[in-house]
From TrEMBL:
Name of the protein described by the UniProt record: 2-hydroxyacid dehydrogenase
Keywords, in A-Z order: NAD, Oxidoreductase
One Pfam entry name: 2-Hacid_dh
SUPFAM superfamilies: Formate/glycerate dehydrogenase catalytic domain-like, NAD(P)-binding Rossmann-fold domains
InterPro entries: D-isomer_2_OHA_DH_cat_dom, D-isomer_DH_CS, D-isomer_DH_NAD-bd, D-LDH-like, NAD(P)-bd_dom_sf
Residues in D-isomer specific 2-hydroxyacid dehydrogenase catalytic domain copies: 31-346
Organism: Streptomyces glaucosporus
Family to which the UniProt record says this protein belongs: Belongs to the D-isomer specific 2-hydroxyacid dehydrogenase family.
Domain D-isomer specific 2-hydroxyacid dehydrogenase NAD-binding: 131-317
Amino acid sequence: MEKAVNTVNTADTVGTAADGAVDIVAYGVVADERPLLEEAFRGRHRLRCLDLVLNRDTASTAAGCEVVCSSVNDVLDRETLTVLARGGTRLITQRATGHNNIDLDAARELGLSVARVSSYSPHSVAEFAWALALAVNRRVARSVTRTRDFDFRLDGLLGRDFHGRTAGVLGTGKIGAAFARIAAGFGMRLLGSDIAENPECLALGVEYVDRDRLFAESDLISLHLPLVPDTHHVVDADALALMKDDAILINTSRGGLIDAHALVETLRAGRLDGVGLDVYEEEAGVFFFDKSMEVMTDDTLARLMTFRNVLVSSHQAYFTRDAVGQILAATVRNVEDHLAGRTGENTLVPPPAPR
């Protein structure tokens, strides 16, 4: 996939808009997403796509746009939101389910309404989590690197059957349930942990246990929790110490669920059979961009990349045509709801009441 660069896309606003159209600027738009986003708004509103991160330094580029369409790695803190509000923005609609990057209290005080995408294809993320799990377990990356050099040895490529082993699903909502269904297909014993039991998971045979037991008994642990204060660094040094030495850890949810420093120390000690990370706590400004010609200043991320049993991908688990299509359809609805004065399941901060 073509990678985005840290420059402002100066292309003209696209599309012939209908009556009542507003100006929309979308941030963090990657190459494969842009034509889909443009098509979603074509004939409805005037859209400008930028491939830069939205933060306090770049927020002035939204001046005059009533709607800002943000990405999960944008930094919508009080300072950024203040600049947006002064520039005429009235709606922030995020192309993601997570919204821990948005200061909702500040948005409310500034009179900004905020919406997100409350759900999209859970299969996209669950299937990618399994892609990472299988690749880590069967040493796929190492094997492919070797065979490109015509090295066809099997040394160091020994994996394990998942059949008959224990999968721990931390977070059993729609995505966690989809992950559990696939695990059941492999013939795995299923453990789950969440604030509420999912009937669909119970029907699959998931046994709900406390987090400590899940960490201690699972051969494969996959994280599918939202990032909230209670889940921040849920995988910390204590949790990692409970895990089996040959366990596999997968995170396709939010980077802040894992204490990356503790993970590095665990791997340095020779523990864990493998780790698959599609997200990273400090990924903003790094993931989605081409950093190949720059010095990597994040020592923790650089260290993680040196372990042969760690795979890091660039927050792409959601990135299927099906899921992106659903995300963009929901984003269009968020804009139409805003203009009509409606709220819905995607609304995080409703518009201020008329005075």
